[in-house]
User: Which sequence fits this backbone?
């Protein structure tokens, strides 16, 4: 690759990368940063992991992993190499030749991007800045962030990008608890500010990621990640709208999807649900629509998807009301049990979980609400009160007026719960194998019964 004036900073760093003598840094040791640091150590590099949370650093030194995908055993092996140094001290940046920034990019109260974590890291980098460093931002963010929040800030200090320092964007693609795809085997897109930046970023990431996908700029890399997750948000919103349409038309959306997905080309199934949760899908599209507005471009798809997905908890509660009506009951004063509080199956993560919204809406409607989740054992409600999960007790579950399945954890005994005879609102089609009249699902109409007790016939 022609790098133009290949200066000695470039040459020195490239040699350090190739020989694995480069000291690597990871800022932010969360679900992205810690697995990244582990891969770097596994490939023979010395790694400094910087995190503001001293508790995390202490746990790492004690060999206690707080990330589901990194076992204590793996962490112990990494610590035993002596090549991983977790610290809270940003002065360690002085030792680092290449740094990957993996800090959160949440939304502010009014749904605007909150890039304060990135800004804080850049301020620290400026304090300990030295020539020849490669900086790669991994945090999901709007196109232009790498240039606006990092490149411009360092150029203000007189450094020239592509000569005095090197700058890339490489979006994280970590899917927590994904048993098949991990940091090493998930293809990694990377965009460099200059050709020299891209050459160094590609050389480095190729050392611990199986497939590196170079693109022409940080903006392309930034935008590619937002496309990936906005694609999901829009398609989930679309199938949620189809579910409400089918409900109205008395057609089973779940059967419709199963039929459509037999098409071997040109179709990709998404499934209705009680809304969308997690640290990516509810947030990433808002980063894109916010930035686009700066160009006077208003993405109707993103806004419509956000409002459709945000409406789903209300749809679930309204449906519950219709179902209880079949038993001459109202939500008010009913005892409701929510099964599953986490934002997706088989994890404990509660971030943006729609179950939290469903819970509050039932409470606001005057119901007594409990929840059971085998992974998420408690949460803080909107008043800051800690709400614990109830114990798994089928006899107790029988006493509820209604059971609402919000998160379809694999380890729930759907057969036993179906046979309790308690009316069920199934938001995930998790009870698909049990065709009982008291089991209802979103995306299909409420089967009307003449008498309340008729609906309780258990097959
Ligand atoms: N959801 C639906 N219907 C669907 C798919 C998802 O309602 O058909 C809901 C889920 O229940 C959840 C939310 O949407 O509440 C998000 O689900 P997700 O499957 O997108 O899982 P996430 O949030 O963990 O997304 C991550 C993302 N990974 C990265 O950003 C690196 C996403 O790009 C991945 O595609 C996704 O994991 C994945 O495929 O598991």
Assistant:
């Amino acid at each position: 690759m022609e790098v133009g004036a290949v200066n000695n900073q470039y040459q020195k760093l490239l040699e350090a990368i190739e020989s694995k003598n480069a000291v690597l840094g990871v800022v932010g040791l969360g679900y992205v940063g810690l697995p990244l640091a582990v891969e770097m150590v596994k490939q023979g590099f010395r790694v400094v992991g910087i995190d503001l949370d001293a508790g995390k650093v202490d746990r790492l030194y004690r060999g206690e992993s707080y990330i589901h995908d990194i076992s204590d055993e793996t962490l112990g092996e990494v610590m035993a190499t002596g090549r991983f140094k977790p610290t809270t001290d940003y002065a360690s940046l002085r030792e680092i030749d290449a740094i990957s920034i993996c800090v959160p990019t949440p939304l502010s109260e009014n749904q605007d991007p909150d890039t304060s974590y990135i800004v804080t890291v850049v301020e620290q980098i400026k304090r300990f800045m030295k020539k020849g460093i490669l900086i790669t931002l991994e945090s999901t963010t709007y196109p232009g962030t790498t240039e606006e929040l990092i490149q411009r800030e360092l150029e203000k200090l007189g450094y020239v990008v592509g000569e005095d320092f090197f700058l890339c964007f490489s979006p994280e693609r970590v899917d927590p608890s994904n048993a098949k795809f991990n940091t090493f085997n998930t293809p990694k897109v990377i965009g460099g500010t200059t050709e020299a930046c891209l050459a160094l970023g590609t050389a480095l990431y190729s050392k611990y990621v199986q497939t590196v996908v170079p693109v022409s700029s940080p903006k392309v890399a930034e935008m590619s990640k937002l496309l990936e997750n906005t694609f999901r948000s829009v398609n989930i919103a679309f199938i949620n709208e189809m579910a409400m349409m089918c409900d109205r038309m008395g057609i089973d959306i779940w059967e419709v999807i199963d039929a459509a997905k037999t098409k071997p080309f040109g179709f990709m199934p998404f499934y209705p649900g009680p809304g969308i949760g997690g640290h990516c899908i509810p947030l990433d599209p808002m980063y894109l629509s916010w930035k686009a507005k700066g160009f006077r471009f208003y993405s109707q798809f993103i806004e419509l998807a956000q409002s459709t997905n945000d409406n789903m908890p209300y749809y679930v509660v309204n449906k519950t009301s219709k179902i209880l009506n079949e038993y001459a009951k109202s939500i008010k004063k009913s005892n409701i049990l929510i099964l599953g509080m986490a934002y997706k199956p088989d994890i404990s993560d509660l971030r943006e979980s729609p179950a939290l919204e469903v819970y509050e809406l039932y409470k606001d409607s005057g119901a007594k609400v409990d929840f059971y989740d085998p992974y998420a054992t408690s949460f803080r409600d909107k008043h800051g009160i800690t709400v614990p999960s109830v114990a798994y007790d089928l006899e107790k579950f029988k006493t509820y007026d209604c059971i609402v399945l919000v998160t379809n954890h694999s380890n729930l005994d759907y057969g036993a719960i179906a046979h309790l005879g308690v009316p069920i609102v199934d938001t995930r089609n998790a009870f698909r194998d049990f065709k009982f009249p008291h089991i209802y699902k979103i995306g299909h109409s409420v089967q009307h019964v003449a008498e309340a007790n008729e609906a309780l016939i258990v097959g």
